[in-house]
């Protein structure tokens, strides 16, 4: 091992520890009593599901304007993309997510599934 | 060495890089389109044996040809961003610090920046900052693959140098 | 209930019992005051207009009395005798239409809060002329929210969120000690999209806007807040008024009144009442906030311009 290796090694170790620490803190802070799955297409929320409240498995299919689709499978505290007609089906391969902070992405259809720990972005009620 | 010989050697390297790229595309990842970056090992070898221009050339060719095999625009962007950042870092480190750093270390740095590049593209595509939650995982993966590639490159370098030296003498 | 969605978040040992009583009280009030219920006191009162008075429960009498007070305070901007106009336009029913000027002028003659004759001793109210009618829609939800608050407090609840179709009352603070965050609806976007939030404890937050109930004819939007002086939907330059106050009945009455009064008069009125604050949104996307709640209001939607005063 050369001299520079040790320095780089230590620097890397510190960076990794900081990154791990920061993400852990963030995940702990967004943890709430709820597991709200938020499904967005092209940045717009198209559906929110309280995964805590799901009792038996349910499926939803979203179609895009040009006929493509994503089928989403929802279970108690878990959500996944069951099927889609995108080229590589990466989203299907991504598997299941269940905790706040995790996400599944279907890039070709610009579909993102996130899990929020809290409801309503911190808003308790809205007037209208 | 003679021009044709160099061209042939580079073509072989590109082909190998392409094959590695296509195989690693089958490995399941966190996010559609991102890759481990194993193909960058070939660029590293080229960097050592030939120079930075050749390294970049191989990376560009591998990326362009790789995109023909599928993946679409996002995959192309990931490959290019990751490859470019990774190569630039390795080129700079190799040029100025090759005596202070061993190959695995240079390779690890390259691998880290390969993933950083991919992460930046992903953040741009989905416009959601939470993608950075993947950073620790990608860092660790980069260190592991980087070390592996670096060691591999080291071995390849020794073997190829012997072959090429032998060849020159003839 | 009440033709809208009721949401109650109640925390504490007696939460279940308190909530049950609250829901009963909502029904009770609705049965007394709704113009859509044939047996309600108000319906009976309206049927006897120009003839005789109707003896009312404490609830109904109090609300009408309060409404008249507000009519005087706002120079007639709030006027619960607006019902003939409301009925004429039919907003919210399948008979909604744009009446002719003649029809409106005719019905407008029946609109005058001074024709509400109050007899406190007998707890009786009479409408002076035939065809006159009262609609407590602009003030009843606020009253109901205040009554629910009373029930919750009687049941030893000190943390709750009452939301009666957008009429919000935040009782106490949240269980973790922080203030309640109330989102203010973006008048120009779908429900649930907010322009900002206000942090409150023990306050009522009520909004009136031109987006809640309306219909569109020939590209023009006709909403449900009628100007008692013209008989047409009020167009005074505001698209949304939010009132933050201690009592929800005040918030409800003032949100409607200030919408009709417009920005200048509305701000003047609110600044003159102690303990009441407001957030007004104009039709050119400007947001005005009164001094009392400046620090608790957070504008999150940058399409709207915060006007410093």
Keywords:
heterotrimer; B: 170 residues; mainly alpha; Arp2/3 complex 21 kDa subunit ARPC3; 6 helices; 79% helix; globular; C: 309 residues; alpha+beta; three-stranded antiparallel β-sheet; 16 strands; 26% strand
How would you explain this protein's 3D organization?
The complex is a heterotrimer of chains A (128), B (170) and C (309). Helices cover 25% and strands 38% of the residues of chain A. In chain A, strand 7 (103-106) and strand 8 form a beta hairpin. Chain A has helices at 3-30, 90-93; strands at residues 36-41, 44-50, 58-63, 69-75, 78-84, 96-97, 103-106, 111-116, 125-127. Helix content of chain B is 79%, strand content 0%. In chain B, helix 2 runs antiparallel to helix 3 (52-68) and helix 2 runs parallel beside helix 6 (135-169). The N and C termini of chain B lie close together (12 Å). The model of chain B has no long low-confidence stretch (mean pLDDT 84). With 309 residues, chain C is an alpha+beta fold. Chain C has a single domain, classed as T-fold (Roll), CATH 3.10.520. Chain C is 31% helix and 26% strand. In chain C, a hairpin with an 8-residue loop joins strand 7 (180-185) and strand 8. The longest helix of chain C has 19 residues, at 15-33. The N and C termini of chain C lie far apart (40 Å). The mean pLDDT of chain C is 93. Chains in contact: A-B, A-C. The interface between A and B is medium-sized, with 31 and 33 residues. Strand 9 (125-127) of chain A pairs parallel with strand 7 of chain C, so a sheet runs across the interface.
How is the topology of this model organized?
The complex is a heterotrimer of chains A (128), B (170) and C (309).
Chain A: H1 3-30, E1 36-41, E2 44-50, E3 58-63, E4 69-75, E5 78-84, H2 90-93, E6 96-97, E7 103-106, E8 111-116, E9 125-127
Antiparallel strand pairs in A: 1-2, 1-8, 3-4, 4-5, 5-6, 7-8
Chain B: H1 3-24, H2 40-49, H3 52-68, H4 72-97, H5 103-126, H6 135-169
Helix pairs in contact in B: 1-2, 1-3, 2-3, 2-4, 2-6, 3-4, 4-5, 5-6
Chain C: E1 6-11, H1 15-33, H2 41-47, E2 54-55, H3 58-73, H4 83-89, H5 101-108, E3 116-119, E4 124-127, H6 140-154, E5 159-164, E6 167-171, E7 180-185, E8 194-200, E9 203-209, E10 214-217, E11 220-223, E12 238-245, H7 248-261, H8 263-272, E13 277-282, E14 286-289, E15 297-299, E16 305-307
Parallel strand pairs in C: 14-16
Antiparallel strand pairs in C: 1-5, 2-4, 3-4, 5-6, 6-9, 7-8, 8-15, 9-12, 10-11, 12-13, 13-14
Helix pairs in contact in C: 1-6, 6-7, 7-8
